[in-house]
Write a structure and sequence with these properties.
The chain has three helices and 20 strands. It is mainly β.
């Protein structure tokens, strides 16, 4: 058995393997998946000397703990959290050398939701359709981490970054999502778009990697019934029968029959990955490009 591997000691609430995802397979019914906070995943990869596309761990709220079988350089980013090696506190947001057999413990998020853990050489589980990402909707890719699971690691391809701490965006205390109206805004009353872009919403506890669900005023429909199933894009703001907007994230379905009132700018979605339940949400209408 290779020593380039890590053993899972504590899987956490939901820890998955993620990379850049599977874009380009929607015609096969396959979501894009990939890290929800892609800039955070790219940063920790850069800190340990990996290519941008290397697979990392994405943790949810309470982190995880792993034991590498050989010495490895690690970086933790995304949601700020305590990090320790064999009980000794080490830096968050910077490369750290973890000896063979030592316990790396990524603690609970102090703020934000999702942490990212990169290992020099990357996690080298078998790719599916060109990606190592776990897809919770379709079931493609490796399963979420479980007790005693073992994940293979690649060999380091470059030196780690020489930094003390890399600056990272603070998780949002208020989530501002810029939206372009359409393509099905005509299925709603004229006042519905005004409600969406002027009233206060909050992140629902029912949010997950598929979509950020919201709590707040319902959006009134102008047309009854449902659409024939049509293609859905990342950031689509779909409105189910309860009238509360849902922002589609990385594991979203490729088709759907509920109308999409607007689409969130891609640049605003990483912050959505770090918005905790109860975080205020504001939708801001912007012009079509």
């Amino acid at each position: 058995m290779t020593d380039r591997a890590l053993a899972v000691v504590r899987p956490g609430a939901l820890t998955t393997v993620q990379d850049l995802g599977r874009p380009g397979h929607a015609h096969l019914g396959v979501p894009r998946s990939g890290a929800l906070d892609a800039p955070a995943a790219a940063l920790v990869n850069r800190l340990v000397g990996n290519a941008r596309e290397a697979a990392v761990l994405e943790t949810t709220l309470n982190g995880c703990a792993v034991r590498p079988r050989s010495a490895v350089t690690v970086a933790v980013g995304g949601a700020p959290c305590p990090v320790s090696v064999d009980g000794r506190p080490v830096a968050w947001g910077a490369p750290v050398r973890v000896p063979a057999g030592a316990l790396l413990d990524v603690g609970a998020a102090i703020s934000g939701v999702r942490g990212y853990v990169a290992f020099s050489g990357g996690i080298t589980v078998e790719p599916v359709l060109g990606s190592r990402s776990t897809d919770l909707l379709s079931g493609l890719g490796p399963p979420p981490l479980t007790d005693d699971a073992v994940l293979p690691l690649g060999h380091a391809t470059g030196p780690h970054a020489r930094v003390d701490v890399a600056p990272q965006p603070r998780p949002p205390t208020e989530l501002l999502l810029r939206v372009t109206p359409g393509p099905r805004d005509d299925w709603f009353t004229p006042g519905a778009l005004r409600v969406l872009t002027t009233r206060a919403y909050r992140v629902s506890a029912a949010s997950n990697r598929i979509g950020l669900r919201t709590e707040g005023p319902a959006l009134e429909r102008a047309r009854p019934g449902e659409l024939p199933s049509e293609g859905m894009v990342l950031g689509a703001v779909q409105v189910p029968p309860d009238g509360r907007p849902v922002v589609f994230l990385a594991d979203h379905p490729t088709t759907g029959g509920y109308p999409v009132i607007a689409v969130v700018r891609a640049a605003d979605l990483p912050a959505a990955a770090q918005a905790r339940p109860g975080t205020p949400v504001r939708f801001l209408a912007v012009r079509r490009r």
